[in-house]
Design a protein that fits this description.
This protein is an alpha+beta fold and 506 residues long. The protein contains 18 helices and 18 strands. Strand 8 and strand 9 form a beta hairpin.
Amino acid sequence: MDAAIATALALAVVYPQAGNLAGGGFLVVRTPDGTVQALDFRETAPARASRDMFLGPGGRPLPEASTATALAVATPGSVRGYAEAHRRLGRLPWAKVVAPAERLAREGFVVPAGLSEDLAEERELLTRWEETRRTFFPGGLPLAAGVLFRQPVLAETLARIAKEGPEAFHRGDMAARIVTFVRAHGGVLSEEDLAGYAPLWRAPDTIRFGPLVVHTMPLPSSAGLVLRSVLGQLEVARGAARGLDASSTHLLLEAERRAFGDRNRWLGDGDCSVVPLGELLAPARLAALGASIDAARATPSASVESSLSSPAAEKEETTHLSVATPDGFAVSLTTTLNGSFGNGAIVPGLGVFLNNEMDDFTAAAGVPNLYGLVQGSVNEVRPGARPLSSIAPVIVEEDGKPLLVVGSPGGSTIPTTVLQVLLRATEGESLGSAVAALRLHHQHRPDVVFVEKGGAPEALRGFLRARGHVLEERVPIGQVHAIAFERDGRLTGAGDPRGQGAPAAP
């Protein structure tokens, strides 16, 4: 846990696209005695937030209100979340866990090409904010790859957090600075919101799939429902078949379509809304959904929608890390600001990017969010609620022993990314091959199959088109970081070739 939290804090310095102090996330942890726990440090809607806060005339969402303004800022959870995980399961002193991040901020790091490119890509958003321009656009240009980048203001913030603990961020002058900045730009966050935020330990969602036990996040993450629904459907639709050949890929996409139909219509924060999980995930219903999959033809999402009427997106720039030790301790941790660099604003005097997590609520029922997800009223803005998430940190066991630690960024594609790696890595492929393999994604709406650009062989494309799927190319899907517990006792790590991550040990 010390390693996981130290890494997450370091990412707030070197990967500002998603690493953060003013964001949130989830983690799943397994201790060597086999106990599995889940920590929810997801952001919450401020007390002054309201259902219609992002709507303009005619009830339509105001452009960029939930993504690029101070109204987009939800109450951060990362600092208290990391501190709570460390309090329960850390061993080193808190200050020592924070120290590497402070050192990176104070002494600097060499800017990688990916950061420079992302700054250039998000220039329009980032240069709206004076402190962000000053920090990341010296001379009006984005930081160049290869330069040494120091963040002394952020280093001081981390030094205070190391010395005083999470309360340094959530109360006192730091909290006042955050609130003053947000309110000055039209937001509704308050000092009471920051002081009152609490991470929550939850029972993990535990799913049995053949000989495997899959542990992931429950609500407000949709991971549990999507994984349980898809795996339950596949047990019926695939039968004894294994692997991801063309036929199995078609079945997987159809199961995803049905699972996301449920996700988008019925899910929200179960602490604030009635969510009919028992009905949605009843074994007989999942079996019926699996049996409804036509092996020869795609089912239009409009048809699936009507068949799901009976029961009573995060941005891609999330980041994930997996940690494991040979004795069976494992941490799967995913954290995010939602959009790349959050809402683009750095708080003066703190060096901290703010999140735009309010966009993960339903601004208006039936209207797509930043990721094209069309969500229901169950996920509407409610004071204190946690927005529905697709984040899916996963730990897989077999015969009571850890087998796989996996997770990914990618917004709505996270659960399907994790599923594809899980299926490949547990059905014969090496971890490296499973992580590098082609990925596809279906989220019910829009009614298309997203395919990684240039990655799918024409034979597979033709097979799917012949079954009625509409294919749409897109940028690479997910950036998985995973660890496998090999049968000989070794640990194997795999960083996704789509991203910048790499194993810290062979």
